[in-house]
Automatic annotation (TrEMBL):
<keyword id="KW-0732">Signal</keyword>
<comment type="similarity">
    <text>Belongs to the leucine-binding protein family.</text>
</comment>
<dbReference type="InterPro" id="IPR051010">
    <property type="entry name" value="BCAA_transport"/>
</dbReference>
<feature type="signal peptide">
    <location>
        <begin position="1"/>
        <end position="22"/>
    </location>
</feature>
<dbReference type="InterPro" id="IPR028081">
    <property type="entry name" value="Leu-bd"/>
</dbReference>
<dbReference type="Pfam" id="PF13458">
    <property type="entry name" value="Peripla_BP_6"/>
</dbReference>
<protein>
    <recommendedName>
        <fullName>Leucine-binding protein domain-containing protein</fullName>
    </recommendedName>
</protein>
<feature type="domain" description="Leucine-binding protein">
    <location>
        <begin position="80"/>
        <end position="452"/>
    </location>
</feature>
<dbReference type="InterPro" id="IPR028082">
    <property type="entry name" value="Peripla_BP_I"/>
</dbReference>
Amino acid sequence: MRALWMTGVLSVLASGCSFTTAAGLDECETSADCGSDRVCTPEKLCLPLPVGCGTVYGAQGADAIPMGGLFPVHSGTDVGAPIDESDEQALNAAVLALEQINQRGIGGKQFALYFCDTGNDVERARRQAEWLVKEKKVPALITAGSGQTLTVAQTVTVAANVVTMSYSATAPEVTDLPDKNGGQVGLVWRTSPSDAIQGSVIANLLRTDARFGSPKRVGIIYVNDPYGQGLYNIVSENLSAAPELLNDGESYARQGDIKAAVDALNQFDPDLSVLVGFASDATNILTEASTRPNLQRGVHRWLFSDSVKDVAVLANGTASAQAQGFYGTAPAQGTGQAFRAFQSSFKDRFNKDPSAYAYTSNAYDAMYLLALGSAYAQGTSGAVTGPKLAEGLTKLSSAQNSPVQLTSSSFTSLASELAAGRSVNVDGASGPLDFNNDTGEAPSPVELWQVSGNNFVTIGNIPAPSTTP
């Protein structure tokens, strides 16, 4: 049908007839001619928006400052794919920040967040990013995950001088992206710390912390994407320095069949396994592991990575039973007033505790940081462009200024300082945002959490190692 439809369109082109009357399509000059739910193509036809796009949060006026948001709210692109609750709550966190920001505005303007659901599909995310950059003229995008962030930055945003701000891209290779596009300031930033930090902490825990039982054989089962590959490489590299810890790695495709990887892990017969993956796959892995003799409770233990911290895992009875009492790591939530204010507002707005999910505070901070960068851009140049916004981000971590908790109450004064071209020093809901302006990232302590019943209990925060691979 698709080929026949395109044949019909080409026939109409050849005949010179009006698309509106002959093929049911509207002609256009710009996307403004197509209404809010369609886009004008280079062929001057009104076609539907990219799949997954269409929802707009915040201000709706023509003078609103547009931002893009690529969130994998559904765990796949198939109709009926389940919700990824961690990323759904990350979206809620960004929307909460947007609502608070728009209550105040910057220079008399508010923000619009054009949301696209990537469905965890890298190619879909790329197409959505192209639309947001070309059609909506966004100066910045909020992105999720390492694979999507790397693809969007490398193929769309950097070349277009658009800022990419990720709340959950942790792959170490994000650090070294060439992202200046001939300018002075990098265009790729993240509120999530590099897994060079989390991986080092995991290895140190296994070597030195009695809670993990001095394992002699450590297995690693990891999702085969930039996030999983990066964390696997760092953990295994650190463990290889300790010859008494033999380690092996088994990979699996996200949303794919995990049985072969679980079988290989069972054959390796580890004392403890590090599980690097997302909620739906982690649920399947734990369920399969419950039937393997060498992965049973009592003879085997787990250590989970950040993306397993999702209540969807604990909603599955078998997976929850397998996970009980075991530990995991994640970038730490903040401990100051910024986090407490965020947690309280999030509970009031969504009736959920954001600390039950990884990266909610990082997504909240990401939206606030883009707004502060926009305040600098607007105040110093009169326009919010990607390069000027990025320049504003370099003004947020001044060691000459006392740290200020980034809350809805402090936003206006911080925005005013930046609009005047002055630097500030902010601590966000995710903790101190002491950015390295060359890499666009900040170090972060790592939370050690434990599965207890239907909850994740924070055991404590571990400082970032002074040196990482």
